[in-house]
Amino acid sequence: MAFMKGVALCRRFHLEVVEPVMKDAYAGVPYSSALLGPGSEVLGYDTEMSADHDWVPRVYLFLDQGDFGQAESIRAALRERAPERFCGFPVDVRKTVITTVPRFIEHGLGMRGDIEPLDWLTFPSQALLEITRGDVFRDDHGRLSAMRKQFAYYPREVWLYLLASAWQRIGQEEHLMLRAGCIGDELGSAIIASRLVRDLIHLCFLMERRYAPYPKWLGTAFKRLKCADRISPCLWTAQTAATWRAREQAFNQAYAHAARMHNALGITETVPEEASPFYDRPFNVMHGERIASLIAARIADPDIQRLAARRLIGSIDQITDNTDFRKLHTWPESEGESARVTLKKLYDPGNKD
């Protein structure tokens, strides 16, 4: 069985199975059809190995709220008309999700109603990718395209806060990697170096205004950034270096690239592009916290501004790498609601805790 990229497989499934059923039995029902949601094929990173589980022709079928009562009838029609195998792959109509745009947002982001700036900080970037990547095969009324445009990227004020938080993380640990190495703790230094490599990669995504995927695809997606050819060799050297001095040299080259990228954004006054001494200690750092302060000073939204003044902790992706915690939309509704309340309290500028 020849492998077919998921987006091509699902597009053919829409054209040859879904669309004929809708045309014949539901001609008066407007709908949208797309490949969205979880799955390597949505991001375009699928390979033949991806087809060993949960790999079926499928679509997300979006109905207007007034037509959603026909969802089960449409599913029954698809089950009756769909072949057992399509392009050599088994067909499971249960994998075709029939929903509405508001229901999809609620499931994917754990969010209903109007979205406030602070809400963006509770959305995992992977969840935002699942909304904005993939492909749209049909979009009557344009509601699906409007949703994807709404979530295309962070609002500017949120983006500035995330950038400041990313530089703050670097400023908090860049000297720790060198201090550990200086006292002979190469393992400890290497562990911190790995954290800094990850933080710099995430910073690059932010500076290029791209959502970062979850860890499995982080390196793959990073290679596609415009800056990757310049900064990736430095990060690889820092990641694989056996001594703290070699890490220091590699990171300082990476920091120089990152500082030039920051200056090209034009969001603050020009920052130095070379590392400088950390107090009187025998090593150089970028002083990420200084860049963070400059960015934070440019935030105009009152709520985000107050939050930045109290704590530059960033989004849920910057707070934790715990997979289950970040998948708030997969929790039971009561737990998910509690988790969102907890996060909103954490971000609430009026919260004194």
Oligomer: single chain
Low-pLDDT residue spans: none
What is the molecular shape?
elongated
- Helix residue percentage: 40-55%
User: How large is the share of residues in beta strands?
Assistant: 5-15%
Average pLDDT rating: 91
The arrangement of helices and strands along the chain is HEHEHEEEHHEHHHHHHEEHHHHH
Strand order of the largest sheet: 5-2-1-6
Distance between the termini: 58 Å
How many strand units? 8
* Class from secondary-structure proportions: alpha+beta
Largest sheet: 4 strands, mixed
Over all CA atoms, what is the radius of gyration?
23 Å
- Total helical elements: 16
Q: How would you describe what is shown here?
A:
With 353 residues, this protein is an alpha+beta fold. The protein contains 16 helices and eight strands. The strands form three sheets. A four-stranded mixed β-sheet has the order 5-2-1-6, sandwiched between helices. A two-stranded antiparallel ribbon has the order 3-4. A two-stranded antiparallel sheet has the order 7-8. It starts with 5 loop residues before the first helix and ends in a 6-residue tail after the last helix.
